[in-house]
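Hey, quick one: can you model this chain's 3D structure?
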Amino acid sequence: MKFIPTRIPEVVLIEPRVFGDHRGFFLETWQRQVFAEAGIDFPFVQDNHSRSRQGILRGLHYQLVKPQGKLVRVIQGEVYDVAVDIRQGSPTFGQWVGETLSADNFRLLWVPPGFAHGFYVLSESAEFLYKCTDFYAPAHERAILWNDPEIGIDWPLLGGAAPVLSAKDAAALHLRQAEVYR
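Sure thing. Here's the predicted structure for all 182 residues.
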């Protein structure tokens, strides 16, 4: 596997080795020892799977208590995946990283605890898998507005159309109003 630091070094793009032939393909998406050697040594406690249609934007989500690190990948379709540093005092506070993840490129993204996370579906639909380092705690979940101008995420919106959001995501706060990690 190749572990590629992004503009925010703690957020890591991972390119697994894919072995393919006339029968199909095989790849390893997580191996504890390999990840630990690359500095990603967290226990995973929960796996999640979501399906969304084109134009859906989920995020930017985080849990203030029981923060989750997420190892994310796409098994069908294509998404634009974003991580925003919301660790107060961090030299990259308020900065973001975005990567295209797809079933075709097999890439994974490591989003450590302390980051808000979201994705936008580029393909007709997408299935998104992610391993979490802590359990979902709805009472502690928070969201930052996807288009906060102070963060300035350059979402690749199809046709420039506004994304489809949940009511919770549409009502999310700007970063300056949000509770963040201290």
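One thing worth noting: The two ends are 33 Å apart (CA to CA).
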